[in-house]
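Onboarding guide, step 5: your first structure request.
Type a short instruction followed by the sequence, for example:

Predict the 3D structure of this protein.
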Amino acid sequence: MSEATPGLATVMAVEADDDDLSDLDLSGVFELLSNDTRLGIVRELSVANADETTDGSLSFSELRTRVGTRDSGQFNYHLGRLRGSLVEKTAAGYELTELGLVVGATVLDAAAVS
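The system replies with C-alpha cells like these:
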C-alpha cells in the first residue's frame, strides 16, 4: 500500500465532516485534479504552505509563475475552478482550504513516491 492511500481516506473524512464543501465528493476532487494546471496550482500552494518562511499564500502572478502557465486568462479559468473547494482567495493572495491542504499533502506524497 502506498503512502498516499491514508491521505485519500482523510480527504473523504474531511469532506464528510465539512458542510462548506457542498456536494464535492472524491470523484469531484479527482476531476478537479485531472488538469495539469489545476494540479500544479494545488501542488505549488501546498509547497508554499510547507515553506516556513511564508504564510502559505501566493499572489496570482507568483502562483502563475510557479505553475508555469503563460496565458493569464487560461490560468484564471483553472484557478476559478478550484476556488471554493480546494483554494480560497484571501487578502494575502490564494491559499488552500482545509480540504485543499489534505489534497495538497497527498499530491506531494504521491510525487515523492514516484
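Each response can be followed by summary notes, for example: Residues 5-19+26-113 form a domain with the Arc Repressor Mutant, subunit A fold (CATH 1.10.10).
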